[in-house]
Write a structure and sequence with these properties.
The chain folds into three domains: 218 residues, no CATH class; 151 residues, Reverse transcriptase/Diguanylate cyclase domain (Alpha-Beta Plaits), CATH 3.30.70.270; 183 residues, TIM Barrel (Alpha-Beta Barrel), CATH 3.20.20. It has 23 helices and 17 strands. Helix 16 runs parallel beside helix 17. The chain is rod-shaped.
């Protein structure tokens, strides 16, 4: 009994579902509507044509209200429905509108099919046997056509088939005429088979739609994942550039202004090296979340890769507000991060550029923001730099310098100048630092501050280093044995074993005592790839050369990392020396660095000393070796001998 009741309940549920629209599947509703809207006008055309042909065969025998009035009323109803579906067949309505339209069709399918069925049966008594056969044929063939046209809306097709076929079978079976009884059985059988086919087709149709929905969902998810940075869950580089191109197009159409910013974490690499990649990844995630919390809906944040983030700021009213917003972001990243049990402190530098003021397309926007970032990192680290006309002019100048560098004959055009390093206690020359000078036949004399960054960026610096080092060693070989040579190596000069080996070979073959040579490297070079730099300095130290860490105090290297290098000297950057007599903070830094150098048993050179006041402070805090304009500007090789003799006469 219980099994039978459960079966009956399941049967009723299946029957109810068959005669109901599946409103919980929006994509199925849309697919049904799309297919249905193209077929339904055709159904009404077939229905009306067949009906008026039937009316015409009975016009002489049946009453006027059956052959004209009743068909006209049915035609008006069908014409209204026909015009609705014809008008909306190429329109994609909302889900709610689709649901209402299909429900309305499902509800009126029964009354309309019943109206036509009653009309046909009412015509049956009139006319001869041929006219009666026409009624049977009309009902049988028309219902088949309607089922085909309604096949994408199963409830309406089932309702129409049930109303017409049940009425047809009952009526013609009750006539007692064998021909009509057989016709009723045939139509009933064909309709049953058609309904079975309809059920299979509708099931396959819904499965196909479900598969398409599933495939679309997977495609959307894959697209989302392809545009999301898996570490920070922010939009990635690909998504950023897609948005940037779209924003450029929108701004161009609307005549609006927006800004692009690139933000780089200062001090991230030492954290990664010291604490490991796991902590570094968590720090990047935390930094991304902190930035995201400061961005509104009109600011798009993305992670470009590594420790670089990018922003598109849609409402860029003026440079002052942009600068203030960028400063807020950088200040936020200066606040300590708590990663597990470790408190980590970093900083950030940011470059900003505005559209259309300083860039006309997405490519220029990105490149100019990147230029502003790295120009700021060189001149005003951990701050915000807004791309300006001066930057634009600098880019054009750099382009000219790059072209001239690529065509230059460095053997002829490069010259080495030397600036003395003095022991202020003995007033003797300790060393000369070799400094590059370039006189281009196209551009004339070009400042090292201009051409060296371009040479480093383009990789030309390696060729220059080899030529300058050979010239500097040849000049230094003529000096007294107690005077050392100090020579600068760039990040690129330490970047690969092959380049380092070429430098080692030049030193070994120069005929100069390598124990009198100090090679200067910057903290930036150290942080670029500390393992490679450690290997490179070990190779150089094996020749007996000294290693000087230049610009000490301006980078983010840890003491443990510096201690791992084979250093012999450190050089305090000139930025700490300028106006030291009026700057207590600089004074404390220089005193601390001098104490640190003594503790690490390293010689310390203080560069950039230019005034007697600065020199007095350096003497007072215990500085020993000094380099700067207070003694001499850089001089050509020919003047070094005279300068050496002059200094010797003073000390004697």
């Amino acid at each position: 009994m219980g099994i039978r009741m459960a079966w009956n309940a399941e049967f009723l549920n299946n029957l109810r579902r068959s005669f109901s629209i599946e409103t919980d599947k929006p994509q199925l509703l849309k697919a049904q509507y799309k297919a249905f809207s193209k077929q339904l006008p055709l159904m009404y055309v077939i229905l009306l044509i067949n009906s008026w042909i039937l009316s015409a065969t009975h016009i002489s025998s049946a009453p006027r209200w059956l052959t004209l009035d009743y068909p006209i009323a049915l035609t008006v109803v069908c014409a209204i429905r026909f015009s609705f579906w014809l008008r909306t067949r190429n329109i994609e309505p909302s889900i709610e509108s689709t649901r209402r339209a299909l429900n309305r069709t499902n509800l009126i399918a029964g009354p309309i099919s019943l109206s036509f069925t009653i009309w046909a049966i009412m015509l049956f008594p009139y006319g001869d046997a041929y006219a009666q056969s026409h009624v049977a044929f009309y009902m049988g063939i028309t219902v088949i056509g309607c089922i085909f046209c309604l096949m994408h809306l199963r409830p309406a097709a089932l309702t129409t088939a049930a109303v017409v076929n049940i009425s047809f079978v009952i009526f013609f079976a009750s006539t007692g005429k064998p021909t009509f009884i057989a016709t009723a059985l045939n139509v009933g059988l064909v309709s049953s088979i058609m309904l079975m086919i309809l059920h299979v087709y509708y099931r396959d149709f819904t499965r196909l739609v479900d598969a398409q929905v599933h495939a679309e969902t997977l495609s959307n998810e894959n697209l989302r994942l392809a545009n999301i940075d898996s570490l920070t869950m922010l939009p990635n580089r690909r998504k950023f550039f897609t948005q940037l191109h779209a924003c450029c197009q929108k701004a161009q159409n609307e005549g609006s202004r927006f800004a692009v910013g690139i933000l780089d974490l200062d001090g991230f690499k030492p954290v990664n090296d010291l604490y490991g990649h796991s902590v570094g990844d968590k720090l990047l995630f935390a930094a991304g979340q902190r930035l995201q919390n400061l961005c509104d809906e009109d600011t798009h944040l993305a992670r470009l890769g590594g420790d670089e983030f990018a922003l598109i700021i849609m409402h860029a009213r003026d440079d002052k507000q942009l600068l203030a917003f960028g400063t807020i972001l950088c200040e936020a990243l200066r606040q300590p991060f708590l990663i597990g049990d470790t408190t980590i402190q970093i900083a950030a530098s940011m470059g900003l550029v505005t559209y259309p003021d300083m860039a006309a397309n997405a490519t220029d926007l990105f490149e100019h923001a990147d230029y502003a970032l790295y120009h700021g990192k060189r001149t005003n680290r951990s701050m915000v730099s807004v791309f300006s006309t001066s930057h634009s002019n600098k880019i054009h100048l750099d382009a000219k310098i790059e072209q001239a560098l690529r065509k230059a004959d460095f053997d002829q055009e490069l010259e080495v100048y030397f600036q003395p390093i003095i022991n202020i206690k003995t007033q003797q020359i300790v060393a000369f630092e070799a400094l590059a000078r370039w006189k281009s036949p196209v551009l004339g004399s070009v400042s090292p501050a201009q051409f060296i960054p371009v040479a480093e960026r383009t990789g030309i610096i390696n060729q220059q280093t080899r030529i300058l080092l050979a010239k500097a060693l040849a000049a230094a070989a003529k000096w007294p044995d107690h005077i050392r040579l100090s020579f600068n190596l760039s990040t690129h000069d330490l970047s690969s074993p092959d380049i380092v080996q070429r430098i080692v070979k030049i030193i070994a073959q120069a005929g100069f005592d390598s124990r009198r040579l100090d090679l200067e490297i910057t903290e930036t070079a150290v942080m670029h790839d500390i393992e490679q730099v450690r290997w490179a300095t070990d190779q150089i130290r094996q020749l007996g050369c000294g290693i000087t860490l230049d610009d000490f105090g301006t980078g983010y290297s840890s003491l443990s990392q510096l201690h791992a290098l084979s250093l012999s000297k450190i050089k305090i950057d000139r930025s700490f020396v300028t106006n030291i007599e009026r700057n207590p903070a600089s004074l404390k830094i220089v005193k601390s660095l001098l104490a640190l150098s003594r503790d690490m048993e390293l010689d310390c050179i203080i560069e950039g000393v230019e005034t007697p006041e600065e020199m007095a402070v350096i003497r007072e805090i215990g500085g020993t070796m000094v380099q700067g304009y207070i003694y001499s500007t850089p001089i050509p090789e020919a003047a070094t001998r005279q300068w050496i003799e002059h200094r010797l006469s003073i000390t004697e």
